[in-house]
Known about the structure:
Four copies of one chain form a homotetramer.
Chain A lengths: L19 H16 L18 H20 L10 H4 L24 H21 L6 H27 L24 E4 L2 E5 L15 E5 L2 E4 L5 H9 L11 H10 L7 E4 L2 E6 L2 E4 L11 H10 L7 H8 L34 E7 L25 E4 L17 E3 L8 E2 L3 E3 L1
Amino acid sequence: MTTTSAVDATAPTDAGDDSLEARFEAVRSFSESIVEGLPAEDLVPQSMEDASPLKWHLAHTSWFFETFLLRESLPDYRPLRDEYAYLFNSYYNAVGPQYSRPQRGMITRPTVADVLEYRAHVNQHMARLFDSAMTAELEPVVELGLNHEQQHQELMLTDVKHLFAQNPLLPEFRPGSGAPSGAPAGPLGWAGFEEGVYWVGTDDAPFFFDNEGPRHQVFLRAFELASRPVTNGEYLAFIDDGGYERSNLWLSAAWSQVNAEGWRAPLYWDRRDGEWFQFTLGGEQPLDLDAPVTHVSHYEADAYARWAEVRLPTEFEWEVAATDQPRAGRFADDFRWQPSADDASEGPLRQIYGGVWEWTSSAYLPYPGFYASDDAIGEYNGKFMSNQMVLRGGSVATPSAGHIRPTYRNFFPPDARWQFSGIRLARDA
Amino acid sequence: MTTTSAVDATAPTDAGDDSLEARFEAVRSFSESIVEGLPAEDLVPQSMEDASPLKWHLAHTSWFFETFLLRESLPDYRPLRDEYAYLFNSYYNAVGPQYSRPQRGMITRPTVADVLEYRAHVNQHMARLFDSAMTAELEPVVELGLNHEQQHQELMLTDVKHLFAQNPLLPEFRPGSGAPSGAPAGPLGWAGFEEGVYWVGTDDAPFFFDNEGPRHQVFLRAFELASRPVTNGEYLAFIDDGGYERSNLWLSAAWSQVNAEGWRAPLYWDRRDGEWFQFTLGGEQPLDLDAPVTHVSHYEADAYARWAEVRLPTEFEWEVAATDQPRAGRFADDFRWQPSADDASEGPLRQIYGGVWEWTSSAYLPYPGFYASDDAIGEYNGKFMSNQMVLRGGSVATPSAGHIRPTYRNFFPPDARWQFSGIRLARDA
Amino acid sequence: MTTTSAVDATAPTDAGDDSLEARFEAVRSFSESIVEGLPAEDLVPQSMEDASPLKWHLAHTSWFFETFLLRESLPDYRPLRDEYAYLFNSYYNAVGPQYSRPQRGMITRPTVADVLEYRAHVNQHMARLFDSAMTAELEPVVELGLNHEQQHQELMLTDVKHLFAQNPLLPEFRPGSGAPSGAPAGPLGWAGFEEGVYWVGTDDAPFFFDNEGPRHQVFLRAFELASRPVTNGEYLAFIDDGGYERSNLWLSAAWSQVNAEGWRAPLYWDRRDGEWFQFTLGGEQPLDLDAPVTHVSHYEADAYARWAEVRLPTEFEWEVAATDQPRAGRFADDFRWQPSADDASEGPLRQIYGGVWEWTSSAYLPYPGFYASDDAIGEYNGKFMSNQMVLRGGSVATPSAGHIRPTYRNFFPPDARWQFSGIRLARDA
Amino acid sequence: MTTTSAVDATAPTDAGDDSLEARFEAVRSFSESIVEGLPAEDLVPQSMEDASPLKWHLAHTSWFFETFLLRESLPDYRPLRDEYAYLFNSYYNAVGPQYSRPQRGMITRPTVADVLEYRAHVNQHMARLFDSAMTAELEPVVELGLNHEQQHQELMLTDVKHLFAQNPLLPEFRPGSGAPSGAPAGPLGWAGFEEGVYWVGTDDAPFFFDNEGPRHQVFLRAFELASRPVTNGEYLAFIDDGGYERSNLWLSAAWSQVNAEGWRAPLYWDRRDGEWFQFTLGGEQPLDLDAPVTHVSHYEADAYARWAEVRLPTEFEWEVAATDQPRAGRFADDFRWQPSADDASEGPLRQIYGGVWEWTSSAYLPYPGFYASDDAIGEYNGKFMSNQMVLRGGSVATPSAGHIRPTYRNFFPPDARWQFSGIRLARDA
């Protein structure tokens, strides 16, 4: 992992003080704001192996600071409870063994109050660290911890959405956060890009994950990128045209999945009496036809593109196109956790940041010259470079405009649907 | 289901007032006493498909009164929430469809407070029913509902024990409820019974489940029954003699299970540094060698008996022997939820009631002349008469001495271990 | 295992010479007659874990004689190939480890010719044993080996039927062996039996398996037994009346199975263009409405009986009724391997032997006083006394009238359908 | 699918006549030569879902010619049996439904003789087609059919090897075909290549699969490629250094697989009494330390490279390096079906063709501008572009030097081990 502590790194709030400590406080408190006012019950269950309980996310993000900073660098630090080292390690083999991932929903104790106490304990000792022991070597680790916590903030929203969707009462996680906007999507246009050798990736952003580098050159043919994401209305046309019943539109593994799981629409869609509804973090809502389609897998994005007789962009086409675009769009800080057409983005590539993550046609693989570091932090990204596809651009659940970058690589298996993942089309020039 | 409302049915408390309404209040409040003072988190998760969350038990037992009494027989009854009819139906197909059983741990709303409100709502309207609309036809249904709730009280204890055992912190559910007694088990003797034709089952107990009748005759050869259950110490001798490694001691299906699951001791036993511990509802405790062995499957009980060169009793041998014994022993009301040798039972068949359920060699099958009734309540017992074995006598988690009878038939699959199930040996005379 | 070599045991042929050696030759050659003329391909695959390849049956039955007689009792015996001891051991842990059961279809070598050579080798040395080393102690083991081989002859037919049914070409295993007879079933009557204490089981039949004893007394209430099995036509009425869609007719485990497997008719039935067909060892045939229904599970037999408002008999009711009936009916030697109404049975309980195995309501459990012997042969029956139901009477695939007895207990799990299992009803008097 | 019928395409034999018809005859007869002299039993079973029976391969390759040529283009063609259209369709949804893939080992009829008759029938009518109805449009389809059959010839060898390995007798498929050579591997060197933009893929090879094009440019950094594959001896050093026990060497999905499957060595390796053996198509053999390691997954190749502190090449690095190398090395026609150091390859990149397929670090994805055709033949390659990794160069089981090309892309999931897959290392310059 290579990071640099950076003066200009944007904070999750627009507060004037963007010191590292101020941003630490802002990021940490945003995690708690997500669960504020919730009954303890909501923070306990795990709805599938890929998702984790809210309580676990709150604890694990604290574990990260405790493990990689307090235990190693703060003299006299005493953990609140030794067992947390095991209980809240996610997957860092170099740190030690881990509690079984699919069992995370079984842990009723520590309670929510205990976990909040754990957070306060870590925060208090981090304050000591900031005051007395911060060094240039430690600052990048703090930065990483903050970006790590921001990633978990996104997962908190997508995991709890998946959990709430299991409940036939379809409860509202945050009333008002999912209402349709009624704003029109506007026509779909295309932006063109020239053939050439381009530089992609980064070695020197204020902060970046190790998987975003090394910066390197790629050869791209001329291509065009769609001016906005595919909408629910457009996706509905695909459904109505028999999209889920036509094997020739699907990759072989995708077709098996469609049939094994009985997929007939994106995740969280439901049709009753001829009308479509969509489950959101603000409860069930009528389907907003102009909003970007979301909760589709890579398989569905790929099938849709084939049906539309175009294709998905590679991650490098996306990056070349997006580099100079403004980082507008809707993010988690807006507390409107459902994509819609009414965000602040403008220009030839609307909503390229925020709104929905955009599936690319690129497998998640190391860049030329990438080697994961040998320590625990080297496990952060590199070991997942197998059987996953890259997504770009951030979503309504991504915690702040400051967290996203043109070079940011998100990745999920091609059948994953519980993220706010959508579709931006590309085509050969 | 055939029941009779009965004047002399024993109440779950020793209060003087044993009216049906008084017993209703006592049974209902005992359910709440089990969860009193617990954090909400403890009531949410489901640790396996066979177990249910505490919150679900609290709601389902209320659903029973609502469905079979209030909705049908109380004029103007308005349910607190219509969706509960679906959400808290366990398995009554005649009533309607049911929420998926293995998903019961996903329901965070209604919260614990909501469920307690639901209980209060049902109780309040039951009071109305007692005051205004109780009839001789309804009283047996109330009786059934109370016995049903008592069965769920036992499951609350066994299910939460299984849940807590998943937590590597091994939390205490009720401090003090699992401490070893130090009392000696005493020597094992044998009580003899003559060959003959005996009457078994009941048609006229103050209350009984439909599966306990019709009363009928069976032919029994002369037999002997052990004077007390097998102890942990005796079971340890079986383990130390290679009991879990010798295929010839096991039924074929049992041997597959032993190897597939890696069984090497009863559930909840753990050996560290040469010493044995046992997880209890009062946290982990040193193994009490004189206490009755518990959390063994039928497969293990059968293998132990074969190793001991004797056998398990049939359910009829057990019943003939137990009929005249006093219903002493330890029950749930004692709040000491781990079997031990120091209970109040005496006589030639110590601890035959309470302590541990005793596996018999009898498959759970209908008695001659048994036919389940055609209505929903007919689903209570009859449809489970497949692939299960009968247990007799009650346990430390059985809610009260009044709930148990000589003719009471409990049943679980032969590989089940999370109940307080133990072993009483028999042999041919 | 207790057996007695018996003068009057009936041979699988009607030859005059019923010496043990003559019967050995007859039984052994009948196994080979089943596969005579088949292409080698038919003898190789295994269609499910419960079934075995024909080739394996031919080898394993020889392994039995080699293991329990030749290796132990014939001086200078040299096995044809040492590895067969491992490869063809079915489940005798006392003999040694076994090749993985679900992998039996992977063994292409030894070839069919090799296995026939193995059979010849064993036969030739068995002849030496008969000539030179036969003793009163060995004769019962030979008897057991013959009855064992007869049981495998039945499995050869049922296993290969299951295999052939996987082939969409629905090939004929033995042309002509499954043709419908057109004979009428006749009306269903009832034979009555008195309440009383009866003796059941045997200790002294010419030959019997250990699970048929000890002979002991049971108390039976008065009952009636149907005069013939349920027919396909009667079962069709159950189907047409929504039998497979009505949860209240089924045991809970049965209802899960019905829905998980999509059962809507007996195994091997197929409906096309409004007409029912049935796959037989003679290829697909129109459904014979008068023939006994077969390839139904215990679950289906039980549901049918509940629908018909009667019940299944216990195994003891069946035995008491059947004891004095003639052992007519159709058996495997007839080479007509599909039940029909036109067999030779007569009297008040037609087809009580042969035709179809009749499911009873009795779980397969040890008789009072039963203990399996400690040696390998003790594994023959006892260790399977778990989660199985008893069937009585033999079927069209049972190898000969001499193999069946009133006390003979067959057993299969309640969901098994690939045996020739059918239904005879009972009711309370 | 784009193909061109080509004058200079090399035939699987060195016969002078390289007409399309001559090559048709040569390829078809090579399939039969693989099974020549085998007992029918060997051709029936299927050892896992990914593998198919030999008999199925023989039939399916004939089905291909029947379906895409004879049925469509030969007037008056009559299929031998209509059901084969369904039975031997592998995965072409556009052609129609398919017999269940995991059930291919259940088909005993048609027999081997029937399938050989089917092959003769197809061959005979293909001869008619060559004589009377061949056109420039059909020739590429014939070419595709031949290359398709050659691919299945490789699968015949790898599938039957997997099948035979299930048999504890470890039979020899072809005696002598797996003997170790004793030839030395020689030291490992490195060949260097410059940074630059390179052309890769093909649009105009005499024959090529659709996935090899369009030809396009890629930017490569300077790199070096190993002069020969990794040997068994070198891989043993990785094992002995704890390679399979060190989580930090493995991708996360790989580490799960290693532990779930208990991998401790390549597939088919066995260690007894301190010595290593390897199962081959010529039976079990001592491990040849100088031979290229084979039957390793992508996961193992990747972990080995990380252990060796280098990496795997991308498919484009491999292609750039291999383009000018001679297509020497050992292929299936040699009937020596185990890699060894003694083949005919020479130069700076020994054994780059033949011997073992070489895992690359590239995911199997479409080239820029690739679109699968809309017809059934479009299903050939494109729909598998998900969750697979590219292998290059051919193996000892690849049917002939003429079948392989620098641009040839083989692909398997990263956990596949039953192909002759090995490792060639790369590193940054």
